[in-house]
Amino acid sequence: MQKRPISVTIFGILNIGFALLGLVGLLFSMFVMSHMGSAGNPFLEQMQENSLYSTWMKISVPLGGIFSVLLLAAGIGLLMLQNWARIISIGYGIYSILGCIVGGFVMVKIVTSIMSHNSNGPGGMMAIIPMLGGVFGMVIGLAYPILLIIFMTRPNVVTAFKQTQLVA
């Protein structure tokens, strides 16, 4: 029987860590969304009033919660060398890549809309900073799911999961 690839253990632990981080982030997002109007920040208030932002949050927050729970289960399953966990990890990677790209474009659209309707808003370089933050966030956000898909589809990883199924 082949040894468990170290990448499976590493990604199992990372899946659990990112899942827990995602669930904490979900709770934080729900708290911020419920208190956003009282924040006193005009930019945040305009974001909350933006229909695209409201729609995006109503879709992305529940999906984020569901996929965080799936990622937690997949992390535990990877540590137990369960093939379903490898498949869920790949599915999570695909969802995360698509969500990151769509979310980045949605946020750029929202910030652009708010900036164009706000004559008292920051001009010049200050208007570009949120855009650069969104692009930087997208690049960082894409790294883990891409690596997860690459490693979960490597031949030695696929073989290790198939051998586990044959033994069970």
Explain the overall architecture.
There is one protein chain. The longest helix has 35 residues, at 83-117. α1 (6-35) runs antiparallel to α3 and α4 runs antiparallel to α5 (125-152). This protein is mostly helical and 168 residues long. It has one domain. The protein contains six helices and no strands. The mean pLDDT is 84. The radius of gyration is 20 Å and the shape is elongated.
Q: Indicate how many domains the architecture comprises.
A: 1
Category from helices, strands and their pairing: mainly alpha
The stretches of 5 or more residues where confidence is low (pLDDT under 50) are none
Distance between the termini: 12 Å
Which percent band covers the strand fraction?
Answer: under 5%
Tally the beta strands.
0
Radius of gyration of CA atoms, rounded to a whole number:
20 Å
Number of helices, counting only DSSP H or I runs of 4 residues or more: 6
Topology pattern, helix = H, strand = E: HHHHHH
| Silhouette | elongated
